[in-house]
Amino acid sequence: MKTKALGLAWLCLLPVAAAAQTATEVVAKVLTARGGLEKIRAVKAQRVSGSISFGNDASGPFVVELKRPLKMHMQLAVQNLTMVRVYDGKTGWANNPFAGKMNPDLMSDLDLRNISEESDFDGPLVDYKRKGNQITLVGKDKVGDKDALRVKLTTKNADVRYYLFDSASFLLLKWEGQRHYEGQELPVESYFSDYRDVDGLKFAFEIDSGSSASDISQKIKIDKIELNPQIDDAEFTKPSAPEGPGAPATAPPSTSTPTPQ
To answer: How far apart are CA 58 and CA 79, in angstroms?
Structure first.
């Protein structure tokens, strides 16, 4: 009788073991859900346009242009002030009109590290080993009423981020990490929703970010995503001072624009 009971117990464990997933398997499903590696790698350039809002009072349009390898041009206008961030793959320039700095200057080492990651529109999970990233499947979680899989990513710079993927669709629901702002490292959560198909690839058209789910301070609504547009390389050289009137205003809580995944 004991032998029979032991045999039944073992059979009950088999489905659990078979269903176990590794981080590598989860990431493979995530990339398939986005449209597959072949289509992801076929994108040589990307233009994203929409609106960004900081709280209830400050909002405006933005445009981000990206091009391989690791080139980025971002421009956003808020309260009659225009912010520009440009990266050519090695050197970056940025202004901060919200602090009275109108002319784009060379980026600091920290800003360069941030923008070099933002300009990788494949995302850190594509070819993660080659990029020096490590991934770990932490376990199951919840994002709202959806079951999620939590994946920990450690970058080559030892920065730690968490990605929470829908257990059913394997699309990204939430990102957790740190943002550098005025000499501080602040916790940030980003929520991804309104997924749409663009030429066979899935993108989130709404991204809400803040220090917690109840403290969302930045909202991004994407109007259009263009894949493989013609973008002149001159867009990624040192920009001139943007035109536009206006006195310095209060700086937005974040100046980074997450690339939709």
So the answer is: 6
CATH of the domain at 64: 2.50.20.10
Which H/E stretch holds residue 39? helix 37-42
Mean pLDDT score, 111-121 = 92
pLDDT of residue 186: 81
Asked if residue 111 is part of any domain, the answer here is yes
Which DSSP helix (H) or strand (E) runs through 51?
strand 45-54
Domain assignment present for 56 = yes
Q: Which domain holds residue 127?
A: 22-236
In a domain, 261, yes or no: no
Chain length of the chain? 261
- 51 occurs within a structural domain: yes
Is pLDDT above 90 for 59? yes
Tokens of residue 216, six digits = 């969302």
Mean pLDDT of 229-247: 82
Let me know: does 126 contact 40? Beta carbons within 8 Å: yes
What mean pLDDT do residues 150-172 have?
Answer: 96
Of the listed ranges 81-95, 162-176, 234-248, the least confidently predicted one is: 234-248
What residues pair up with 105 in beta bridges, in sequence order? 94
